[in-house]
Amino acid sequence: MSEPILRISDLSTRFFTKSGQVNAVESLSVSIDEGEIFGIVGESGSGKSVLARSIIGLIESPGQITGGKIEYRNAPLADEFRDAHPDAVNGDYVDLRSLPEEAVRSLRGPSFSMIFQDPESSFNPTLTVGEQIAEAVEVQRRASSNPRSTKARTSSSEYSLGSYAYGAVMPNRSFVSSKSKDRAIELLQQVGIPDPEERVDEYPHEYSGGMLQRAMIAQALAGEPDILIADEPTTALDVTIQAQVLNLLREIQDETGMTVLLITHNLGVIARMCDRVGVMYAGEVVERGTLSDIFDTPVHPYTKGLLGSIPDLDTTGGRLQPIDGNVPSLMDEEMGDRCYFADRCPKAMEQCLEEPDDASVDGGTDHEVKCVLAQTEYDESQALGDSHFGGGDT
Amino acid sequence: MAKVGIVLLVGVILVATFAPFLATQPPQEQNLEDSNIPPAGLTYSSEEIAFVDGERQTVTNTVQGSLDHPLGTNQLGQDIYSRTLYGARTSLAVGVLGTVIALLSGVTVGLIAGFYGGRVDDGLMRFADIMLAFPALVLAIALIGLLGPRTLEIPDPFVAAGLADGMPETFTLPLTVTLVVALVNWVWFARIARGEALTVREKNYVKASRSLGASNRRLMLKHVLPNSLTPIIVLATIQVAVIILLESSLSFLGFSGTNLSWGFDINQGRDLLATSWWISTVPGLAIVLAVIGINLVGDWLRDALDPDIGGERGGM
């Protein structure tokens, strides 16, 4: 197997709020291979979106990445920074956390881009859709015109302060060259917007939700990114549009061979789209493996629980089996060195009061589980009662 | 009400623009024989004690207003009507120019403070608070004392083109006053812009754009600023009126550097208020009408640009 394109190790992202420290992502490690669709699935509040934003470097105060590495494989980039930032470069890999902010910014667009959950609020209402896509094209054009120089990607005399100010005063003045606009039309066509020549000059409120989501995909594709992060791309859409958008993503991935990190809480979306899956719980990836590892031979009780709570058409009449309890609070003082799922786990044992390690199932494969059950059988004699968690109110 | 406001505002703008054509005589021209003439249609009589043929007599002087000086003359025999027209130029020029300078500097500071937040925000906004702690008029007078009353002579295009012979060839723009009123008022723009920037920078489209590699400058100017403009525009309208009042106060106190200003004229008639009341009243009314007009337009703009009201209650 080829080297992964993105290697995240021991990533911790914390939010320092007034009511305490929240460990949204806690020593998370995951590798993503080039050209695959990797799914991250988990409940609300499990840290999926924070993971996505950590990768792209958009964690804002009071949040902070407190530890770990986000290593991105890109040989030219590694060569560029090998001398200036030796600690950031490791072989062909570059650690995004050790790069200067300007360099990370230059990677957004051409290397990483992101599709957001809510297309309606992700477009600036005062600019045409075409202009906003073309904006992303310009970033990419500048990057490719001089790929070696970070400076060329980020500043250009074409876009002086004066022209910005002029554009702010004269709303009808188009910012973008006709070349970028043509590319925007092409991109709109690619994502299946009808009449792209007309639509390119329309404002976001003239688009429907599904079309805006397509336009957002077009915007994300403008930079021809190596890695596309899709954060709940279909949550705000109705079911038929969801299917269309997912098909579109799949087609584009087939065409371009880019890597997609798909974040969702919907197991159906995962089953339909992904090559490999990571299941997130309380800021950790508790189980990861190929699609069939997760769906056919899950090991972690949480994964089993998630799968058990999907309605099944074949066995009608029975009740759904939800996972008891809620996602634990991610406040620092309430988290200890133990398995965070233990208090909801039907198979919790006394060993679960210690933090489990990542363990490979059946040895050798990349189906890994953060659970003692990977190596031991459930032993009822060591089962934990509710009393261990201070009253059994869950 | 908005219609009234627009009529008043457009009226002031037209008057200021075409003052050389509307004026009946050059505003500075003195004619001491025609001093203190009342407005057309009014008569003014004064009794004075005089010695006629060695005898002490009470003589009654009666002065009749005429259309030669439709709004009367002042102590120096200058035509009040013409002076008021030219005063509109000063007020409007200082009001608009001062607002523009205040807007540009205030919005720049506010945008940077709101967008970057944290220490930048704290530093800039605490400085703004300190500026607010000074009374505007006192600060303005102190600054004028510091800078000196500089003026700029701007050639009048109509006179230069030979369309209005005899009228003053240049218009005196009180530079210091313009700068000072802007320095006193930029804080309001900074506060509004900061508040808006704080909200808008959290919007998804700002994050989306950032995730595509946009620079901070681009985010500020293309995404945050255009979406913060509405309250800034409304504030700018109201500030024109505030600055006109401040300019009038300053020129009333004699700090303006020009003697063609409503405030200056009010001051001239101050001592004669009991007798020649029109000298102060006419420029005073001009200020009132201009400020009311601008405020009405500002109110209407605020309602019209507020999506919650939908512009229907604006009265237009």
Automatic annotation (TrEMBL), chain A:
<dbReference type="GO" id="GO:0005524">
    <property type="term" value="F:ATP binding"/>
</dbReference>
<dbReference type="InterPro" id="IPR050388">
    <property type="entry name" value="ABC_Ni/Peptide_Import"/>
</dbReference>
<dbReference type="InterPro" id="IPR027417">
    <property type="entry name" value="P-loop_NTPase"/>
</dbReference>
<dbReference type="GO" id="GO:0016887">
    <property type="term" value="F:ATP hydrolysis activity"/>
</dbReference>
<keyword id="KW-0813">Transport</keyword>
<dbReference type="InterPro" id="IPR003593">
    <property type="entry name" value="AAA+_ATPase"/>
</dbReference>
<keyword id="KW-0472">Membrane</keyword>
<dbReference type="GO" id="GO:0005886">
    <property type="term" value="C:plasma membrane"/>
</dbReference>
<dbReference type="InterPro" id="IPR003439">
    <property type="entry name" value="ABC_transporter-like_ATP-bd"/>
</dbReference>
<dbReference type="InterPro" id="IPR017871">
    <property type="entry name" value="ABC_transporter-like_CS"/>
</dbReference>
<keyword id="KW-0547">Nucleotide-binding</keyword>
<dbReference type="GO" id="GO:0015833">
    <property type="term" value="P:peptide transport"/>
</dbReference>
<keyword id="KW-0406">Ion transport</keyword>
<dbReference type="Pfam" id="PF08352">
    <property type="entry name" value="oligo_HPY"/>
</dbReference>
<protein>
    <recommendedName>
        <fullName>Nickel import system ATP-binding protein NikD</fullName>
        <ecNumber>7.2.2.11</ecNumber>
    </recommendedName>
</protein>
<feature type="domain" description="ABC transporter">
    <location>
        <begin position="6"/>
        <end position="307"/>
    </location>
</feature>
<keyword id="KW-1003">Cell membrane</keyword>
<dbReference type="GO" id="GO:0015413">
    <property type="term" value="F:ABC-type nickel transporter activity"/>
</dbReference>
<comment type="subunit">
    <text>The complex is composed of two ATP-binding proteins (NikD and NikE), two transmembrane proteins (NikB and NikC) and a solute-binding protein (NikA).</text>
</comment>
<dbReference type="InterPro" id="IPR013563">
    <property type="entry name" value="Oligopep_ABC_C"/>
</dbReference>
<keyword id="KW-1278">Translocase</keyword>
<keyword id="KW-0067">ATP-binding</keyword>
UniProtKB/TrEMBL annotation, chain B:
<dbReference type="InterPro" id="IPR050366">
    <property type="entry name" value="BP-dependent_transpt_permease"/>
</dbReference>
<keyword id="KW-0812">Transmembrane</keyword>
<feature type="transmembrane region" description="Helical">
    <location>
        <begin position="171"/>
        <end position="193"/>
    </location>
</feature>
<feature type="transmembrane region" description="Helical">
    <location>
        <begin position="130"/>
        <end position="151"/>
    </location>
</feature>
<feature type="transmembrane region" description="Helical">
    <location>
        <begin position="224"/>
        <end position="246"/>
    </location>
</feature>
<feature type="transmembrane region" description="Helical">
    <location>
        <begin position="92"/>
        <end position="118"/>
    </location>
</feature>
<dbReference type="InterPro" id="IPR025966">
    <property type="entry name" value="OppC_N"/>
</dbReference>
<keyword id="KW-1003">Cell membrane</keyword>
<keyword id="KW-0813">Transport</keyword>
<dbReference type="GO" id="GO:0005886">
    <property type="term" value="C:plasma membrane"/>
</dbReference>
<dbReference type="GO" id="GO:0055085">
    <property type="term" value="P:transmembrane transport"/>
</dbReference>
<feature type="transmembrane region" description="Helical">
    <location>
        <begin position="277"/>
        <end position="297"/>
    </location>
</feature>
<keyword id="KW-0472">Membrane</keyword>
<dbReference type="Pfam" id="PF00528">
    <property type="entry name" value="BPD_transp_1"/>
</dbReference>
<keyword id="KW-1133">Transmembrane helix</keyword>
<feature type="domain" description="ABC transmembrane type-1">
    <location>
        <begin position="88"/>
        <end position="298"/>
    </location>
</feature>
<dbReference type="InterPro" id="IPR000515">
    <property type="entry name" value="MetI-like"/>
</dbReference>
<comment type="similarity">
    <text>Belongs to the binding-protein-dependent transport system permease family.</text>
</comment>
<dbReference type="Pfam" id="PF12911">
    <property type="entry name" value="OppC_N"/>
</dbReference>
<protein>
    <submittedName>
        <fullName>Peptide/nickel transport system permease protein</fullName>
    </submittedName>
</protein>
<dbReference type="InterPro" id="IPR035906">
    <property type="entry name" value="MetI-like_sf"/>
</dbReference>
